[in-house]
Amino acid sequence: MTRMKQRGASVSNHHRQLRKEIALILAVKLLAIVVLWQLFVSHRQVDVDSAAAGSSVLGEISPATSLSTGSPHDQ
Fold it and tell me: DSSP letters of 7-67?
């Protein structure tokens, strides 16, 4: 029975050490992401012109196209 207790304590210590290592790795990765974001992304700014964005998404709409009604076969 004492062997089982020793084995359980050993596994518990291993789990505790593994948790510490994982937490340290996650903290280092998070720090790396924050540093990279600060260096390369945070100072960038994009100016968006709503008319230009709309025309790039929807394409140019001519007045004749927007006013026509019915199907093209009716003409």
Answer: HHHHHHHHHHHHHHHHHHHHHHHHHHHHHHHHHHTTT------HHHHHHHHH----HHHHH
Q: How far apart are CA 10 and CA 16, in angstroms?
A: 10
Tell me the pLDDT band of 63, cut-offs 50, 70 and 90: low
Q: Read off the pTM.
A: 0.50
pLDDT in tens, 19-43: 999 999 999 999 999 999 999 999 8
Give the whole-angstrom CA distance, residue 59 versus residue 65: 12
Indicate the Cα dihedral angle 30, 36, 38, 42, nearest 10°.
-110
Q: b/e per residue, 55-74, with b = 16+ CB within 10 A?
A: eeeeeeeeeeeeeeeeeeee
